[in-house]
Amino acid sequence: MTPHTPVWKWILALVVLVLGAAVAVPLYRYADADDAPGGMVIAFLIFVVGGLVAMWIVNTRPVTRKPGSN
In whole angstroms, what is the distance from residue 48 CA to residue 20 CA? Predict the structure, then answer.
């Protein structure tokens, strides 16, 4: 039987994703209004990294060792 992801990890991942979006969306809008494509790229990267970190949080499993191995 495979272990299930704890609820606290889902909540933490959601918080990370929301924080990433909360930073990226206003930055993207500001950069778009200021006609700054570099700022738009940075905002997009912040959002993507937030999503990747959230996926990493959810998908990490505790390390288990085989019996008899050191």
Answer: 8
**Torsion angle of the four alpha carbons 9, 10, 12, 16, in this order, in degrees rounded to the nearest 10:** 130
Contact of 27 with 42, CB cutoff 8 Å: yes
- Residue 53: Cβ-neighbour burial (10 angstroms; 0-12, 13-18, 19+): middle
Count up the domains in the chain and report the number. Answer: 1
- Residue 33 sits in which domain range? 7-59
Q: What is the pLDDT of residues 28-67, one digit of tens each?
A: 999 999 989 999 999 999 999 999 999 999 998 776 777 7
> Residue 42: which H helix or E strand, with range?
helix 37-59
